[in-house]
């Protein structure tokens, strides 16, 4: 599907005060990233099954290339995870038009979705866990951005927070705009290099 700005990331739904907390309080908050993986296809989900019941995925550059349709291999993976007993939810800051598109995509798999979220505010993560009646401590958040996807999960008390490389980079597909790429890069430098955090 060609690039369409109307389908993209919606910065107006980001909760800016909470996001600024990542930068202002980050030096006090260790362990925001608990695991890393090249992509969702490289995560050993079985190794977490005794510790978690709910998988929460970011969408753009986690499940698919930036602002693109969800590919069939991603849907097949999610269907396989559902068949193995996982509850699955998707959580993203995206436009109203893209929200409707994604809802149609995920509906046949009975995947809980919350779009136009206020990442990284904790309330949205907690609401998703409540909808499927699972303690946030038994959830896993998977995303490509530390300051929104994983920081919000950290604030919500989600135990496992997995950082993946951008889908578009791994699969050599159309990437994010320069602003998104720059923010993602600076977050990683801030977290891993300046603050000297390590994945435990």
From TrEMBL:
Keyword Metal-binding attributed: no
Protein name: Phosphoglycolate phosphatase
Keyword annotations from UniProtKB, A to Z: Hydrolase
Domain of life: Bacteria
Record-annotated membrane-spanning stretches: none
Hydrolase in keyword set: yes
The EC number(s) this enzyme carries: 3.1.3.18
MF terms (GO), sorted A to Z: phosphoglycolate phosphatase activity
């Amino acid at each position: 599907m060609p690039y369409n700005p109307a389908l993209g990331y919606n910065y107006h739904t980001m909760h800016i005060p909470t996001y600024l907390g990542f930068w202002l309080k980050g030096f006090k908050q260790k362990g925001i990233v608990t695991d890393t993986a090249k992509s969702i296809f490289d995560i050993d989900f079985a190794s977490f099954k005794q510790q978690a019941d709910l998988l929460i995925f970011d969408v753009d550059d986690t499940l698919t290339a930036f602002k693109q349709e969800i590919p069939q291999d991603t849907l097949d993976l999610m269907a396989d995870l559902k068949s193995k007993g996982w509850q699955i939810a998707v959580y993203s800051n995206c436009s109203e038009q893209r929200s409707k598109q994604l809802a149609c995509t995920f509906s046949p798999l009975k995947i809980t979705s919350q779009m136009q979220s206020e990442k990284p505010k904790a309330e949205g993560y907690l609401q998703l866990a409540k909808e499927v009646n699972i303690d946030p401590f038994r959830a896993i958040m998977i995303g490509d951005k530390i300051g929104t996807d994983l920081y919000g999960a950290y604030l919500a008390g989600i135990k496992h927070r997995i950082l993946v490389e951008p889908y578009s980079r791994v699969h050599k597909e159309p990437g994010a705009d320069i602003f998104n790429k720059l923010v993602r890069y600076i977050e990683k430098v801030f977290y891993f290099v300046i603050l000297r955090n390590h994945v435990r």
